[in-house]
Specification:
CATH topology of the largest domain: Rossmann fold
Mean pLDDT: 90
Distance between the termini: 28 Å
CATH superfamily of the largest domain: ANL, N-terminal domain
Shape: globular
Low-confidence stretches: 431-438
CATH class of the largest domain: Alpha Beta
Strand order of the largest sheet: 7-6-8-9-10-11-12-19-18
Helix content: 25-40%
Number of domains: 2
Largest sheet: 9 strands, mixed
Number of helices: 13
Oligomer: single chain
Strand content: 15-25%
Length: about 450
């Protein structure tokens, strides 16, 4: 992979892969890169060598940053953080299991200012804000909230408490809330569930400091949503619906109470429409356009022209009521969302399919009270659960590793050969469980 990296000065349009844990220096480097029109590619530093090679091959990074020293050397030659001329190039998989880079391109100064204002105006970022970071910064939403806070003159906390190996620690986060008095945070439902479990046993901190608690990433159970609203200051809690590619809606909890289950109405500057089958399309301003890097066919399939302007879809389905509120009826057919992390079964199948003793495999998600969904695998062949688990730990990052393995004589398939994942979900027995990998 290193052979793909050019050793030359960075210039606008270049790409820099970041394979280091999140830190204050990390966010500063992202902002400096974007100020120079260079695109950071935030990636999970726990990716295996084979995963890194597969993801980066199509993105042709100019540099790969693998250590704090590499990050410091990179920052030395970059301008001070100013106006970002684009978005970080986060990667998203798809039903093909091939990761794609979501690429904004270098924006004009007016479009760059409009992009900055889009987030600032919606969330009200200001110099008084203290943003509590709960998730690794290779995820798009926590990085976006951290960047918006810093660009408004605020500060970010929690990175020192976020254990990059074991992940979210409710005890340490509770201490940070008490000490730093944050005003904003982005979270996924799993974060909320684990915080409330901890607070039920050890007591909750004073939460009156929060003016904004935004959650997304996975459906939020109704009971958990109601507890969120009760626990935090009135008017402070929001949900939004979006993807790595772009943002669709935002919803105050007060709106959700009036319309339980909604994810809100279209964000400012956007409009929503549905196909006959419920596929959701979203028109966006020019500054929110994107392509899949070096993937023109996949880009073309994602966009279409509507009367309101260019619109994109990520394949989710839903319905819109008479007042414009969106309700999700389902995620992309084979997407598993575990602890707020998107896991694409095809990608996991492609890796585990090479494990000795695997003749056929199907990966799917089942409901899980702790993580929202858990990744499971039905396997045909001679490999046992222990062998599959060892292989997964060697070749897959933790969120992608199945927690349950079901050994079958044959997979249920349609006449055309498509796996009937719904049958696997309906008949799933719990074989093994390892919540530490979520």
């Amino acid at each position: 992979m290193e052979a793909l990296v050019e050793q030359r000065p960075l210039s606008a349009g270049d790409r820099v892969a970041l394979l280091v844990p999140g830190s204050h220096e990390y966010v500063d480097a992202v902002l400096r890169l974007l100020t120079a029109g260079v695109f950071p590619i935030p990636l999970d530093p726990r990716l295996t060598d084979s995963e890194q090679e597969r993801i980066l091959a199509g993105l042709a990074p100019t540099r790969i940053v693998r250590s704090a020293a590499d990050l410091a050397d990179l920052v030395d030659v970059l301008p001070e953080a100013g106006l970002p001329l684009g978005r970080p190039m986060h990667c998203t998989s798809g039903t093909t299991g091939v990761p794609k880079g979501v690429f904004s391109g270098v924006l004009s100064e007016p479009d760059a200012r409009a992009l900055l204002a889009d987030e600032r105006d919606l969330w009200g970022f200001s110099a008084d804000d203290v943003n509590l970071v709960l998730s690794p910064l290779y995820h798009s939403a926590p990085l976006r909230f951290a960047m918006g806070t810093l660009l408004a003159g605020g500060r970010i906390v929690g990175l020192d408490e976020l254990d990059q190996r074991s992940g979210f620690d409710p005890a340490r986060i509770t201490e940070t809330i008490a000490r730093e008095r944050p005003t904003t945070m982005f979270c996924v439902p799993t974060h909320l569930q684990r915080l409330f479990e901890h607070w039920d046993t050890h007591g909750a901190p004073d939460l009156s400091c929060f003016r904004l608690v935004a959650h997304a990433g996975a459906p939020c159970p109704t009971d958990l949503k109601r507890r969120l609203i009760e626990a935090f200051p009135e008017g402070s809690t929001w949900e939004f619906y979006g993807s790595t590619e772009g943002q669709f809606t935002a919803c105050r909890s007060e709106e959700w109470v009036e319309r339980p289950g909604t994810v809100g109405r279209a964000r400012p500057g956007r409009s929503l429409s549905l196909d006959a089958d419920g596929t959701i399309w979203c028109t966006v301003p020019d500054f929110a356009r994107f392509t899949y890097f070096n993937e023109p066919a996949k880009t073309a399939a994602t966009w279409r022209t509507t009367a309101e302007g260019p619109a994109f879809t990520v394949g989710d389905v839903g319905r819109i009521d008479d007042d414009g509120y969106l309700f999700l009826d389902g995620r992309r057919e084979d997407l598993v969302i575990s602890g707020g992390v998107n896991v694409y079964p095809t990608e996991v199948e492609q890796v585990l399919g090479t494990c000795p003793g695997v003749a056929d495999i199907a990966v799917y998600g089942v409901d899980d009270s702790r993580w929202g969904q858990r990744v499971c695998a039905a396997v045909v062949g001679t490999a046992d659960a222990d062998a599959l688990d060892r292989f997964a730990r060697e070749h897959l990052a933790p969120p992608k590793r199945p927690k349950d393995y079901v050994l079958l004589d044959a997979l249920p398939r349609t006449l055309t050969g498509k796996v009937r994942r719904n049958e696997l979900v309906a008949g799933h027995p719990a074989v093994s469980s390892d919540p530490s990998d979520a």
